[in-house]
Specification:
Blueprint lengths: L1 H54 L11 H15 L3 E8 L4 E6 L4 H10 L10 E7 L2 E11 L5 E10 L2 H66 L4 H16 L4 H13 L9 H4 L7 H8 L1 H9 L9 H6 L20 H16 L10 H11 L6 H20 L2 H17 L2
Antiparallel strand pairs: 1-2, 1-5, 3-4, 4-5
Helix pairs in contact: 1-4, 5-6, 5-11, 5-13, 5-14, 6-14, 11-12
Bound molecules: ligand C2E, succinic acid (SIN) (2 copies) and fe (iii) ion.
Length: 423
């Protein structure tokens, strides 16, 4: 049970770690990319600004088509291609292109570049587009240019290539931030682990204590009545052990066995309401006395109805005196109408009553008891369950009749542990 919860918590935390890393990592990566955009745009704009401030003075004269002016601008542009720009295009204020220079070292790249570079609609605001070729960052920018008077003078369009050192810095920044996210989330998970485990340990202990308390109260209640018609509650313990072992031999699940155990402890709890002159009568009961005695079944159902936890004992308490042929009480149920736990319990109840001393009878020997049970198989008892009982009755009776009270208690404790606490 303990290693199970460790596995469960570990699995949950691991999944949570992966999930949060992906989610928060994704958000952080998106933010970082926006930061990269801003950073590269600033670099590109700055360099473009230097270029245009050097050439802006000539823009007005472009229309006049002085070849030497154009020549001069082209020369400046070619200079700039040695830095970061790989393409520079210039437009006049009428949005007519009058210059396009391409870095001569970039011819092989040009085809790729053409796929990404697109014509911006010429607007009076900065526009940009980032793209990657061969894992390098390129930023295409479009800047409207203003002359000294603040009037639109033309447009600068360029493709800016981020250099290796800057690219590596950006890459490192992004990777470092993502690693930090993953590590911080991992550290949080690691810190949560012992907290969850210790909280769970507290809960497991608490629910174990509660279960133990419930079982103890069930035993106390069962013992209270056992003490009245004999001076020990060992009969109750014995009959419970018989019932568990018979149910186990039939392959019943622990959930079903738990109901049988509660039922076995409490089957005669209704005898609390039967007066001593009947309950402890040394001889045979009269018909009226036996009619009163039979009500112990209904009194028992009333008593356990107060407890939700004891609800699964009801089949045994209510139906342990039904008989397979329908001649039992209180309802006269027949065959499989009688709940299985009650049919199982009827056999071990009578077996224990026969082999024990009662105020009204001496104990029978094992063989005499079995003879009576076999005779009543099919009438009183379910013959299929009797067949199971035959296989274990002798050895079990040997064991229990020779065991001390203490040993019987220990054996029962062991069985309770198995069916209530080993989930
Ligand atoms: P119990 O003493 O625990 O007996 C439980 C059941 O064992 C009885 O249910 C009966 O089916 C079976 N049983 C007990 N002794 C004998 C026996 O000598 N022969 C056979 N064939 N079966 C036996 P039952 O008869 O419904 O009795 C329910 C409870 O009523 C008994 O519980 C006992 O407390 C009381 N009782 C039954 N008969 C007498 C009696 O003659 N005198 C007194 N004082 N009480 C009796
Ligand atoms: C049960 O499985 O507990 C009862 C079914 C039956 O009455 O045979
Ligand atoms: C009795 O009921 O005490 C006699 C035993 C038997 O049922 O054969
Ligand atoms: Fe009874």
């Amino acid at each position: 049970m303990d290693s199970n919860i460790h596995k469960k918590v570990l699995k949950r935390l691991l999944l949570g770690w992966l999930g949060f890393s992906l989610l928060i990592g994704g958000v952080v990566f998106f933010w970082e990319m926006e930061k990269v955009d801003d950073h590269v745009l600033a670099l590109a704009t700055q360099e473009a600004g230097t270029f245009t401030s050097e050439t802006l003075g000539h823009f007005n004269r472009i229309d006049e088509a002085h070849p030497e002016v154009l020549q001069q601008i082209r020369a400046t542009a070619d200079e700039f291609l040695k830095d970061h720009f790989t393409v520079i295009e210039l437009y006049n204020r009428d949005k007519k292109q009058f210059l396009e220079v391409v870095d001569p070292g970039m011819e092989s790249l040009e085809k790729e570049l053409k796929k990404y570079v697109h014509r911006f609609p010429l607007e009076d605001s900065v526009q940009y587009q980032k793209f990657y070729i061969n894992s390098r960052i390129y930023m295409q920018v479009l800047l409207p240019l203003q002359d000294d008077g603040g009037h639109l003078a033309g447009y600068f369009e360029g493709v800016y290539e981020v250099d290796d050192a800057t690219f590596r810095n950006i890459q490192h920044d992004v990777i470092r931030t993502l690693m930090l996210v993953v590590v911080v989330i991992f550290a949080t998970s690691v810190m949560l682990y012992p907290i969850i485990i210790s909280l769970n340990r507290g809960l497991v202990k608490l629910s174990g204590d509660l279960l133990k308390g419930n079982i103890e109260l069930m035993e106390v209640l069962g013992s209270a009545i056992a003490k009245r018609d004999s001076d020990t509650n060992i009969h109750n313990y014995r009959v419970t052990i018989y019932a568990i072992r018979l149910a186990e031999a039939m392959g019943r699940s622990s959930a079903e066995v738990r109901g049988l155990i509660s039922g076995a402890f409490l089957h005669d709890v209704g005898k609390i309401g039967i007066s001593d002159n009947i309950l402890l009568k040394p001889g045979r009961l009269s018909e009226e006395e036996f009619a009163v005695m039979r009500t112990h079944v209904l009194l028992g159902v009333d008593i356990i109805a107060k407890s939700n936890w004891l609800g699964n004992a009801r089949d045994v308490v209510e139906f342990h005196h039904e008989k397979f042929d329908g001649s039992g009480y209180m309802r006269g149920l027949k065959g499989e109408e009688i709940p299985l736990n009650a049919r199982i319990f009827a056999i071990v109840d009578v077996f224990d009553a026969l082999t024990s001393r009662r105020p009204y009878k001496e104990p029978y020997s094992f063989d005499e008891a079995m003879t009576i049970l076999r005779r009543d198989s099919g009438s009183h008892f379910d013959p299929a369950i009797m067949a199971h009982f035959e296989t274990l009755a002798h050895d079990l009776h040997q064991l229990i009749s020779h065991a001390s009270d203490r040993e019987v208690e220990l054996a029962l404790d062991h069985l309770l542990q198995k069916h209530f606490f080993s989930r």
